[in-house]
Specification:
heterodimer, A: 430 residues, mainly alpha, two-stranded antiparallel sheet, 6% strand, B: 290 residues, alpha/beta, six-stranded mixed sheet, 11 helices, 14 strands
Chain lengths: 430, 290
């Protein structure tokens, strides 16, 4: 069996398309990273725009200066520092009336009380003061947000006002259909929010944040395409090369060689995944550093309503695990299509359709359709989006969190597809 | 050792490729003769269990080959009509891969691969990629892979296609020496490939077994139907259009013809002992079915 697996691996790796695909993916991985770094921007205290590495180093310095657990004492100290800057008359100017009206309207939409709205200041900071001195205290919004948002969400759930969580979402997510939760789901969500750590650890976490976002996107769009290209010929090329006619009548042609093909495909998928995980981790660690691994994800604006009590390290591990599962799920689909197809090129096209079509956003059309399409491999691979909010699936009365449901679906369907692939080649007629 | 083909049929919709074909084969070399489309390849694929029959069965030592599964495939060697290969594989690696598929342990696989490369005269190019091979070289490699596991049943579908005369002679001699205590079924259009080495000839037409027997027995069936005559050139066109002419040779200002016909084709024609080629032409060049 070992020699069969070796030869099947050799067949996969030895193809010109495999080498080109891997090299192309390495190039794209590096390019994505370069774009990420080049996109970094910050103003220093002299209101000069810093780009790329300079911006990263500046951010690191500022955030590490303020690192620590967001205990009450810490918050009070930083709030006092910020208040001193905000209340310095030299830093203030009057807010125009029109602007004041707009601000009050926004506060109402977000959910601030009338008392809070009435007490909004009429003086504002001069534009350059924020950039010069206050920007670094923005993270305190997370804690303030925490003291308001998480308890606010808990209150909303207890009052059956779940939709307000969705109302606060921005961008393309703001148009998502609102779910209606059963009592069990509300109860589960409540317990998750109550477990979210109250005292976040603040540190420079941008490296971990960029890594998880970039890597999950890379796996979903690029690495999955590499796997589709490299695995589509595993079975279909035997048909197009006419080697099926000499392979099937051999002793192991209808059993062990099929297992060897499946195992070698898994080995290749795993090796490719680990290679690119290592490349990405190496690149981001080298430039952004590894600090902030134990900072809570709720510090980031995308996750501020997340019920998952995770640090950025936990998030990255979850992303690693889920994107790997999504990738192997896609590999199983590709192998199944390959076992049915007569031509590797057609198999690549069909597999690519199965891969990319579920990227269509159905959240604005139907909540149910959105939940179903979320179980497709590409959406499992885009793992970072899973942790923004808590979503549940009701599987025959058992409540499963979205990541769990994705894992269960991927494993079950992959098992069915692997068996079907086996039978398909075993029963292939020349 | 016995291979039984029992009322084997293969239908593709309304078209019948193999029609209730039955035969019992014991160790020996069998030449399977038939025109294009007569069902030879379909029959061979069913014997190799890579094509499902519509009805009937193939049995090895009285056990259905589907039940035997891996045990049957272990004693089988097959070279298809269109030999598939991996272009970027080297010849030696190709044989090692198929040796793995055939269950040969590594040491034995190495030994056997090198031995067969020597036999088929590919030792010097064993480390070259198959895509650089000529058609004949690829065919020889195909023959080598079919023999890797010392098969008890060897099925060869037009194995000499692409081989030059010298290589065909080598192949014939190889099969002859290999044929002891094995069942070898060889399909071909090149009658000389089987005429001298086949123990039995099987003639297939329209999916059916037409005739079988050794060369002497089978050619006896058309005794009296093969004629030789020498005629003036101006008569050749008429004879060519009216009868099946198996050979035509200019002799001075006359033409010597070998004709296959039910009755005497022309004045001066004499019967001559038939050969296998005559038989082939008799059956497949508008000759009557027996």
């Amino acid at each position: 069996m070992k020699s069969l697996i070796f030869f099947e691996l050799k067949k996969i790796i030895g193809r010109r398309m495999t080498i080109l695909a891997i090299l192309g993916a390495i190039l794209m991985s590096i390019l994505f990273f370069i774009f990420d770094v080049a996109d970094e921007r910050h103003f220093n205290s002299d209101i000069q725009t810093l780009h790329g590495l300079e911006a990263i180093l500046f951010d690191q310095e500022v955030m590490r200066e303020l690192k620590g657990h967001l205990t009450d004492a810490y918050i009070n100290k930083r709030e006092a520092e910020r208040a001193a800057i905000e209340n310095n008359p030299n830093n203030l100017e009057k807010i125009p009336d029109k602007e004041l009206v707009e601000k009050k309207k926004e506060m109402r939409e977000v959910g601030f009380s009338e008392t809070e709205i009435a007490n909004v200041p009429t003086m504002k900071l001069k534009d350059d003061v924020y950039i010069r001195e206050l920007d670094k205290y923005d993270f305190l919004g997370s804690h303030v947000g925490l003291s308001v948002i998480i308890p606010k969400i808990i209150s909303e759930l207890e009052n059956d006002e779940m939709n307000k969580i969705y109302d606060r979402r921005s961008g393309r997510f703001s148009n998502a259909k609102r779910p209606s939760l059963a009592d069990k789901e509300t109860s589960k969500l409540l317990s998750m929010y109550k477990q979210v750590d109250k005292h976040y650890y603040y540190d420079y976490y941008f490296g971990w944040d960029r890594l998880s976002a970039s890597f999950s996107g890379f796996v979903a769009i690029v690495l999955s395409a590499v796997i589709v290209i490299c695995l589509s010929p595993v079975f279909s090329q035997e048909y197009s090369n006419h080697t099926d006619a000499i392979m099937l009548p051999t002793k192991y042609g209808k059993n062990k060689v099929i297992v060897a093909k499946l195992v070698s495909s898994l080995i290749f998928t795993t090796a490719a995944y680990l290679l690119f995980a290592a490349i990405n981790l190496g690149l981001y660690a080298a430039v952004y550093g590894l600090t902030g691994y134990n900072s809570n994800i709720q510090l980031d604006f995308f996750y501020y309503q997340s019920p998952y009590n995770l640090t950025f390290l936990g998030l990255n591990l979850a992303v690693l695990g889920l994107s790997y599962i999504g990738l192997t799920f896609m590999a199983a689909i590709t192998l199944f299509i390959s076992s049915k197809g007569k031509n590797p090129f057609i198999c690549v096209i069909l597999s690519a359709l199965v891969l990319y079509i579920p990227m269509i956003d159905l959240s604005g059309i139907s909540h149910i359709a959105d939940k179903i399409i979320a179980l497709f491999p590409v959406n499992i691979m885009k793992a970072i989006e899973i942790f923004e909010l808590g979503k549940f699936y009701n599987l025959f009365g058992t409540l499963l969190l979205q990541p769990t449901m994705m894992i269960v679906t991927a494993i079950l369907i992959s098992a069915i597809l692997v068996r079907s692939t086996y039978k398909s080649f075993e029963n292939h007629q020349v | 050792m016995e291979l039984t083909i029992d009322k084997l049929s293969k239908h593709y919709g309304d078209s019948i490729a193999v029609d209730t074909f039955s035969i019992v084969l014991q160790p020996g070399i069998y030449g399977l003769l038939g025109a294009n489309g007569s069902g030879k390849t379909t029959l061979m694929r069913m014997i190799c269990d890579i094509l499902k029959s519509t009805s009937g069965e193939v049995k090895y030592n009285n056990t259905n080959i589907k039940k035997l599964g891996e045990d049957y495939r272990d004693i089988l060697g097959y070279l298809p009509q269109h030999f598939g290969y991996y272009p970027d594989f080297k010849a030696y690696d190709f044989l090692m891969y198929f040796a793995s598929l055939k269950g040969l342990p590594h040491f034995k696989a190495k030994e056997k691969s090198l031995e067969l490369l020597e036999i088929v005269n590919l030792t010097e190019v064993k480390n070259k990629k198959i895509k650089s091979f000529s058609g004949g070289m690829k065919q020889r490699l195909g023959i080598a892979q079919a023999m890797l596991n010392d098969p008890k049943i060897l099925i060869l579908d037009e194995p000499t296609a692409g081989l030059d005369p010298k290589e065909r002679v080598r192949f014939r001699n190889l099969i002859s020496t290999f044929g002891k205590d094995r069942i070898i079924i060889l399909s071909t259009h090149i009658v000389s490939d089987v005429e001298y080495i086949a123990d039995e000839i099987i003639v297939m037409k329209s999916g059916q077994l037409l005739n079988k027997g050794n060369v002497t027995q089978i050619t006896k069936s058309i005794e009296g139907f093969v004629w030789e005559c020498t005629v003036p050139s101006k008569e050749v066109k008429y004879l060519n259009e009216t009868y099946t002419v198996s050979n035509l040779k200019n002799v001075g200002d006359q033409v010597s013809l070998r004709i296959i016909a039910d009755k005497k084709p022309c004045e001066g024609a004499v019967n001559t002992p038939p050969n296998l080629e005559d038989l082939y032409l008799y059956y497949f060049e508008e000759g009557p079915a027996l």
